[in-house]
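If you are new to this repository, start here. Below is one unmodified record pulled from the training split, so you can see the exact layout before writing a loader.
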Amino acid sequence: MKLHYEMQESKEVVMVRAVGRMVRSGELDAFCEIVTQFEGARIVVLDLSEVEMMDGGGLGALVYLRRWATEHGVQLKLASPSHFVYELLERTGLASRFDISSLEEAVTVLLMAGDRPPRGYALAS
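And here is the target side for that same chain:
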């Protein structure tokens, strides 16, 4: 499965849901280009719950986006990384470099910012 993604922008918060494989490819390059267009955002949340595979290219993309976010004063959050992605971040020592939260916590950030959760995202009742 290739990398697919959908974005929901809401005031100063952008949520990006990635699905599939974050591996070295043109899709991954396009993903990074799209995310970095939101330099005016206050928070960018990457929902990685449906990422089934990640290689060095995917890790490099996350590191690149972290550096971009820092340079532009954007808070980058990784939401609910899949077990595979979380283990990869842990084993490479990168987990401590990212703000990792559950998807519910990320949606709560939207609510605190006065935004509605993007379509397809909701708090558990």
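Two things worth knowing about this chain: The radius of gyration is 13 Å. The first strand starts at residue 4 and ends at 10.
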